[in-house]
Amino acid sequence: MSHDPDRPPRVRLLIVVDDQLALIKRVRDGHTYYVLPGGGVEAGETFEEAGRREAMEELGVEIAYDRLAYDESFGGQRYLYYFAHITGGEFGTGEWPDFADRDEEKRAAHGSYEAVWMPLAELDAHDVTVAVRPLLDGRPIVRMDRLDHVVLTVRDIEASAAFYGRLGLDRGTFAMGRTNLSFGGQKLNLHQAGTEFSPKAAVPTPGSMDLCFVAAVSLDVVLALLERDRIPVVEGPVTKVGALGKMTSVYVRDPDGNLVEIATYDRR
């Protein structure tokens, strides 16, 4: 598996005691979710040293390793999952040095951290960000890496291409002269309503989509473009929560009435 050498590997710990799993409870932007303890491997550390350091910082415990459960590359970064057991310390006394070093505003933005035990029987009832059950059962994790493309059914390909072109998407063609609009590492494929390519959605309908784009420029630049091109803002700027946390968004509509959200993340 390949990984980006500029993104240090991360170690995650699977610590089970009396049918309970050690987790970190996170509360951020009003959302509660759970992550496995662990973190990034620092310069000069081995994977095992990083896991022991993180266990003390986050959980307040000393650990010994049992075995490597899984080694994967995901999103350009390598993750190593280890089964481990507690050999000393007091669970729940971690000092979170990274969190303690932040000022009050940054602490509020990053939410809270708490070491907790969760019964294995309750895992499915909570938002646990890693597919833990396959790991515990010795099965490989199956999950998606990224969204590659979305097929957009439109009434007028030229009008849609022109609209999204104004938002910075690059027009192109692919198999059989089909039109696509690319941005970053993704694209929109345009299907003409009534002559869609197969296979296709059960009910391909223009104007039925909600799309969210993350802008590569500030929201002020986006708003200036919308005003210049007389594209009405339906709502915003408003604070929303995206895949990576808090963001600020404006909403517009494309020629088919699809709701198009344009967002920027806090760059602090």
Structural account:
- With 268 residues, the protein is an alpha+beta fold.
- It has two domains: 10-137, Nucleoside Triphosphate Pyrophosphohydrolase (Alpha-Beta Complex); 149-265, 2,3-Dihydroxybiphenyl 1,2-Dioxygenase, domain 1.
- The chain has helices spanning 47-59, 97-100, 104-110, 132-137, 157-166, 219-228; strands at 10-17, 20-28, 31-35, 38-40, 61-74, 77-89, 112-119, 149-154, 170-174, 178-183, 186-192, 210-214, 235-242, 245-253, 259-265.
- The strands form three sheets. Strands 1, 2, 3, 4, 5, 6 and 7 form a seven-stranded mixed sheet that branches.
- The chain is elongated, with a radius of gyration of 23 Å.
- The two termini are 32 Å apart.
What keywords describe this structure?
seven-stranded mixed beta sheet; four-stranded mixed beta sheet; 15 strands; 6 helices; elongated; Nucleoside Triphosphate Pyrophosphohydrolase; alpha+beta; 2,3-Dihydroxybiphenyl 1,2-Dioxygenase, domain 1; 2 domains; 268 residues
Distance between the termini: 32 Å
Q: Flag low-confidence runs.
A: none
Radius of gyration, in Å, reads 23 Å
CATH class of the largest domain, anyone? Alpha Beta
Residue share in helices? 10-25%
The average pLDDT score comes to 89
Which class do the helix and strand fractions yield? alpha+beta
Could you tell me the CATH topology label of the largest domain.
Nucleoside Triphosphate Pyrophosphohydrolase
- How many structural domains? 2
How many strand elements? 15
CATH H-level superfamily of the largest domain: Nucleoside Triphosphate Pyrophosphohydrolase
The major beta sheet can be summarized as: 7 strands, mixed
